[in-house]
Design a protein that fits this description.
- There is one protein chain.
- This protein has 251 residues and is an alpha+beta fold.
- It folds into two domains: 145 residues, PK beta-barrel domain-like (M1 Pyruvate Kinase, Domain 3), CATH 2.40.33.20; 88 residues, no CATH class.
- Helix content is 14%, strand content 31%.
- It is built from three helices and 15 strands.
- The strands form four sheets. Strands 2-1-10-9-13-12-11-15 form an eight-stranded mixed β-sheet. It has a three-stranded antiparallel β-sheet with strand order 5-6-7, covered by helices on one side. Strands 3-14 form a two-stranded antiparallel ribbon.
- The chain is globular and about 50 Å long.
- 36% of the residues are buried.
């Protein structure tokens, strides 16, 4: 079976839920538009030169704040508005690029997270890079078959969304993506250069449906495969559009 893009996602606010896309426009050496553009910083986090890339420890995140998985976020790109829902009920809404809108969201998050956040949480925006886990502007690719092979080791189902990928690829052999490191691949007419494997942390232990920590994914990866990697990072080398079902191939 030929490999293809099964699912496309972006994450407008670091640590919050994914936004599914049918297609995405990409530009050389950038992320998807709005991907990790916003983040929830601890009140103790300082940006003396304005919001910029910092390591994830400075932000609210699933690894330390699994309660975030209780929230579903909806992002309206045209209005730049974020809606937060809990058990399907709206609990907060605000415009992310507006001080008053951010304040409304921050007030809810302060009450919701309570002692799990250091100081009053603040929503920050990064227009120059993004609040990704690495400083380089690279998108993440997840091989669905590799996740299925992990299930064999875990002896339990593993939601691929635990890995917060941008592109989920079907039709590959398990772990075939690791052979792409240092090579170029084609997704439709777009060229990507695969840079490195993605080492996994405890954020993947959180069940996104229940917000419970119910697995130890890094430990299972290490025990079963001798590494803690799932997925690869890749840089975009050409401009264009990536669509669902786009073929994935190596030249």
């Amino acid at each position: 079976m030929s490999a293809f893009v099964k699912l496309i996602y972006r994450y407008p606010v670091k640590g919050l839920s994914a936004e599914k896309l049918d297609q995405v426009n990409v530009r050389k050496d950038t992320l998807f538009s709005y991907d990790r553009r916003f983040a929830i910083a601890h009140g103790t986090t300082e940006f003396p030169d304005g919001p910029r890339w910092l390591s994830k420890k400075h932000f609210v995140m699933l690894a330390k704040n699994p309660k975030l998985a209780q929230l579903t976020s909806e992002f309206d790109e045209n209005a730049e508005t974020l809606t937060l829902l809990r058990k399907g009920k709206r609990v907060s809404r605000g415009k992310l690029t507006d001080q008053t809108g951010r304040m409304l969201l921050e007030q809810f998050l302060a009450s919701f997270l309570e002692a799990d956040v250091r100081g009053a949480p603040k929503i920050v925006e990064n227009n120059s890079t993004a609040f990704t886990d690495i400083p380089d502007l690279q998108i993440s690719l997840i091989n669905i078959e590799s996740v299925k092979d992990l299930e064999r080791v875990v002896r339990s189902s593993v939601d691929p969304m635990r890995f917060r990928g941008n592109l989920y690829i079907e039709g590959l052999k398990a772990w075939e993506e690791n052979d792409w490191i240092g090579k170029e691949i084609k997704i439709g007419d777009i060229t990507l250069e695969v840079q490195s494997p993605i080492g996994r942390c405890s954020a993947t232990n959180v069940n996104l449906d229940t917000a419970d920590v119910d697995l130890n994914i890094p430990k299972s990866l290490q025990a079963g495969f001798g590494h803690r990697n799932m997925g690869v990072y890749a840089s975009v080398k050409t401009n264009g559009t990536i669509k669902e079902n786009a073929p994935v191939r190596t030249d």
